[in-house]
Specification:
The protein is an alpha+beta fold. The chain has helices at 4-22, 46-59, 94-103, 112-126, 146-155, 175-183, 194-206, and strands at 27-32, 40-41, 44-45, 67-72, 83-87, 130-136, 160-167, 188-191, 216-222, 225-226, 229-235, 245-246, 252-254, 259-267, 276-282, 288-293, 296-305, 308-309, 312-317, 323-328, 334-339, 341-349, 358-366, 371-378, 381-388, 397-403, 409-414, 424-428, 431-439, 447-454, 459-465. It folds into 4 domains: 25-206, Rossmann fold (3-Layer(aba) Sandwich); 216-293, Immunoglobulins (Immunoglobulin-like, Sandwich), CATH 2.60.40.10; 296-378, Immunoglobulin-like; 381-465, Immunoglobulin-like, CATH 2.60.40.10. Strand 17 (296-305) and strand 18 form a beta hairpin. This is VWA domain-containing protein.
């Protein structure tokens, strides 16, 4: 037994060391409790939205995940030092965090730099590394320099990753925040509603300080401007998917071990521009970057009938005959954004019958960062076909309209016995047609065939009597 004791002690020590190694580093939220959090988005205060979404995010974290919470601006309206460590880093209780957030009453200012300093000092004192996630709906209001605080902390060897979630911020307010996340090896995320906040908080809590820093970055552009895009790497040989990233109109980083990878990059901003795939070879120690351009143009289409707005389906085909974009005009001009290039365009008129309801236009060039406008005007006339007895009684009958030259059936319907449908109206391309009528109901079995000529913009009426 005495011989076994040292062995048991050794096993316990190894187990404890392994458990410590697998323990994820803490996540520390810095929560905005400034007075502006009473502002509304989608009919709810930002405080309500942030509290609910943060509760869901924290609740979904692993059981062994330590979660801390710092809040600023929750006690004093004008005090730049109103910053409090509400939940310590050693905390594992998710409820403790969510309860603390729910009880917060936003009243104060936005001391971002001082809040970050408190967070960093706590890491330094406890010799702990952590993922810091700062949620703010405003910019620094206490003369601090958040970017400098983060830069200096990194230079002093403090181990952390900083993500910032800008909640309802305007474009001109993001510069210092993006600077700080870049210095903090993290990501700046935009959120403008509850769904967006939930999405970015989930992303931020998965991109932790424990994960290796990205070694391959992508910046996606469209016509010279940054565009939000998904980045999805896959090993070229094993086809194994690796963790991807999203650009959020900024630089996105992914970690690629040595090897060759096919990286799919797909724009996300309601564009018909397809994604692209790039191939990258990574060697040990490599750090690489690539810009991906989705330069495209706009094809603006419109359809008319006799010069008046008309509903139609429009499709764009590339040089391989693949449909790259489609739309329905609904009598209005519609825009389709596609890569620069040459296309074949087809129009199909709706609620119009004849042999000329489809139109094709070849070799339409769409140039990058430009709009090409085209339209097509269909032609039509009206044919009114009625069926009655000699005494004027309306007769139900089938009416089939055939193109006179080709014999092709282009339209068909029934007259019924209602004044609203007898005579039956047919909107037809100009031309000569053979009309075949067969009676139904009480007058079943009688037939008539006749020829009519439809002219553009005119109405021709023919009543058959039995």
């Amino acid at each position: 037994m005495k011989k076994l004791l040292p062995l048991l002690i050794l096993v316990c020590l190894v187990y404890n060391v392994k458990a410590q190694e697998e323990q994820p580093s803490p996540i520390l939220f810095i929560y905005d409790a400034s007075g502006s959090m009473w502002g509304q988005l989608d009919g709810k205060t930002k405080k309500e939205i942030a509290s609910e979404v943060l509760a869901t995010t924290v609740g979904n974290l692993p059981e062994d995940q330590n979660v801390g919470l710092i809040a600023y601006g929750h006690r004093n309206k004008s005090d730049c030092n109103d910053i409090e460590y509400l939940v310590a880093l050693a905390n594992k209780s998710k409820t403790k965090v969510t309860s603390a957030v729910k009880a917060i009453n936003p009243v104060g200012r936005t001391p971002l730099a001082r809040s970050a300093t408190m967070a960093i000092e706590s890491l330094k004192e406890s010799n702990t590394k952590a993922t810091i996630i700062l949620i703010t709906d405003g910019i620094e209001s206490c003369d601090g320099d958040l970017c400098k605080v983060i830069t200096d902390a990194k230079a002093n060897g403090i181990d952390f990753k900083l993500h910032i979630v800008g909640f309802g911020l305007k474009e001109g307010e993001k510069g210092q925040l993006k600077c700080a996340t870049k210095a903090g090896d993290g990501t700046y995320y935009d959120a403008n509603n509850a769904g967006g906040l939930g999405e970015v908080l989930t992303a931020a809590t998965t991109e932790t300080v424990d994960k290796p820093n990205g070694n391959f970055s992508i910046y996606a552009l469209k016509n010279g401007k940054p565009v939000d895009a998904w980045v999805k790497p896959k090993h070229s040989v094993s086809k194994k998917d690796l963790r991807g990233a999203r650009t959020y109109r900024d630089t996105a980083w992914v970690y690629l071990p040595p090897g060759t990878y096919d990286i799919e990059v797909k724009p996300l901003e309601n564009s018909d521009i397809p994604g692209t795939t790039i191939t990258v070879e990574m060697k040990k120690g490599d750090v690489k970057h690539q810009d991906v351009s989705f330069d495209g143009g706009i094809l603006e289409v419109a359809t008319t009938n006799n010069g008046k707005p008309w509903d139609a389906l429009v499709k764009m085909y590339d040089t391989t005959n693949k449909v790259v974009a489609s739309t329905r005009t609904y009598g209005k001009s519609k825009k389709m954004e596609v890569p620069a290039g040459h296309y074949r365009i087809t129009y199909s008129a709706l609620n119009l019958k004849g042999l000329d309801i489809n139109k094709e236009v070849g070799d339409v060039e769409v140039k990058a960062n430009a709009t090409k406008a085209i339209f097509h005007d269909f032609k039509s006339g009206v044919a009114l076909i009625g069926v009655t007895t000699k005494s004027g009684e309306l007769i139900d009958a089938t009416v089939n309209v055939h193109d006179k030259t080709s014999g092709k059936n282009v339209a068909g319907n029934r007259t019924y016995t209602s004044k609203s449908s007898n005579p039956k109206e047919f909107l037809l391309n100009p031309g000569t047609y053979e009309v075949r009528v067969i009676t139904l109901g009480a007058h079943k079995g009688q037939k008539s065939t006749f020829t009519i000529t439809v002219k553009q913009g005119e109405t021709v009426e023919k009543t058959i009597t039995f």
